[in-house]
Amino acid sequence: MFTSFTTGCMYVFYCSIYILQVIRKETQKMVKQVENQAAEIGQNATAQSSLILSKAQVMIQRNIVQTSKEGSREEAGMGKKGRGQDRTE
């Protein structure tokens, strides 16, 4: 009877170890999936940020060019509407 009890306990012990190993492997797999998703989200955010910055830089350049053109017109006495229409002299 003692041998049967010991054998039963050993069986339960080894089954428990096996179950824990399976759980550990599945947990590690889930952690890896979450890490991969986080990396992908980070890469997408970086790409979107770069796109937004590029668009903003283009808009800034357009505003600078437009402002420069308007300033040149005003210096020449042309104003925004065209040649000589904004003169107050």
Any overview of this molecule?
The chain has 89 residues and is mostly helical. The chain is built from 1 helix and no strands. It starts with a helix and ends in a 14-residue tail after the last helix. The mean pLDDT is 86.
Structure characteristics:
single chain; 89 residues; mainly alpha
What is the typical, i.e. mean, pLDDT? 86
Helix/strand order, N-terminal first: H
- Main sheet overview: none
Strand tally is 0
Distance between the termini: 120 Å
Helical content stands at over 70%
Helical segment count: 1
Which range does the strand content fall in?
Answer: under 5%
Rg over CA atoms: 36 Å
Question: How do you describe this structure in short?
Answer:
The chain is mainly alpha-helical.
What is the secondary structure topology, with strand pairs?
Elements: H1 2-75
